[in-house]
Amino acid sequence: MKRHQSIANFLALALLPLSGFATDIYVPALPRMAESLHVSGLQIQVTITLYLVSYGISQLFIGSVLDSLGRYRIGLASLMLFSLASLVIALTHSLSVIYAMRIVQGVTVGAVIAGKRAYFVDLFTGDRLKHYLSLFSIIWSTGPIVAPFVGGWLQTAFGWEMNFYLLAVVGAGFTIAELLFSGETLPNPTPFRLGQVVNVYAGMLRTSEFILGIVLLGLSYSMVMVYNMTGPFVIEHHLQLSVVTAGYCSLIMGFAWMVGGFISKATIGLPFFRKLLVNNTIQMVLVLVMLVCVRQVETLSSLVIFAFLIHVCAGYTFNNYMTFCLTRFPHNAGVASGLTGGVTFLIVSSLSYGIVNFFPAKDALNLGYSYLVFILLTALVIFFAFRGMVSRRKPAGAAA
């Protein structure tokens, strides 16, 4: 792999958006899929939830396997299975089969992404590692930017099935590229001993700042996922606009996430909790103004402008804490990567599905209420994280 190191680095970064791309490409087609399969919108939204749950659970357990068996072969097998599952979805009109294949997609993408995040911890240290990690959410956001636009166009021209044919081609293409240019990066495989693995997981789970960081990752990305599950129905059903319009709006939301990542990278030297507190305050003001405005005038512009700004702030929080969590345990990079991604997406899947049930996808006001819940929870978690940091720094006996 050393001969193709730069290409292998590029491939590792290029695979990061696959997790979002596998969902965002067919987000504009959700209403049409429901009509085509003669099911409700909520039943189609379950395809997103199943993907997120399986994506999260797979990462919880795949980390220790990656640290024992390596990243490369598991990644190759996962890409091939992902491509096959995508092809099956495109060929079937059975909702139960689609559910099963979405689970396969979630599991396989989880293994690929956890391995590629660990890839950089394997090869780099210090400022160069931080540089790559700070790029993660920026590069990841290219999926939500490109996928809805492509998906909306494919849905209009060929039908929703073409989105999954494209995913199958993308998976096959990456498999071939990995075979040609990539390789194993794990420097020192850790023997798989159940007791030792349990101790590693337990140590991470007892690290409060690590867990609170993961919770903040989940809350930040839940805002994006709730928009994905709500936005197309609001735009296409409530506002009576086209699927292509919904695709453009999702593209704008992906760009918002990227902007948040760039701002995070630019402010990397600022005091950590202070900048997160300022960011959360801005979000709170934005959502309160949004709730007032959409009560008076609900238009596509009012929906997109406020959602865009709120997503910028969510991307900012996510990028800050993703770097923090992935560098916390460099000697168990696979487990840390898997645990970070796994718990994050379990939080995302449960919160996004729960909030969409509580505030159905009918108008921008309900979307605003969903944002408000997540922003309030984010403020609460930041408070506990900051309090924990202060208590650890307090000198012994100071409390007396």
Describe the model.
It is a single chain. 83% of the residues lie in helices and 0% in strands. It has one domain: Growth Hormone, Chain: A (Up-down Bundle). The protein is mainly alpha-helical. The chain has helices at 5-15, 18-24, 30-37, 41-69, 72-91, 95-123, 126-140, 142-158, 161-181, 194-205, 208-238, 243-266, 272-296, 300-326, 333-358, 364-393. Helix 4 runs parallel beside helix 6 (95-123) and helix 8 (142-158) runs antiparallel to helix 12. InterPro entries: MFS, MFS_dom, MFS_trans_sf. Keywords: Membrane, Transmembrane, Transmembrane helix, Transport. One of its GO terms (biological process) is xenobiotic detoxification by transmembrane export across the plasma membrane.
Tell me the name of the CATH class. Mainly Alpha
Structural class: mainly alpha
CATH architecture descriptor: Up-down Bundle
Whole-Å distance between the termini? Answer: 58 Å
In which range does the helix fraction lie?
A: over 70%
Q: Looking at this structure, what is the CATH superfamily?
A: MFS general substrate transporter like domains
Rg (CA only): 21 Å
**In this structure, how is the largest beta sheet organized?**
none
Average pLDDT over all residues = 84
H/E series, N to C? HHHHHHHHHHHHHHHH
Overall form = globular
What proportion strand? under 5%
- For this entry, what is the oligomeric state of its chains? single chain
Number of helices: 16
The number of E-state strands comes to: 0
Quick summary:
With 400 residues, this protein is mostly helical. It has helices at residues 5-15, 18-24, 30-37, 41-69, 72-91, 95-123, 126-140, 142-158, 161-181, 194-205, 208-238, 243-266, 272-296, 300-326, 333-358, 364-393. It has 16 helices and no strands.
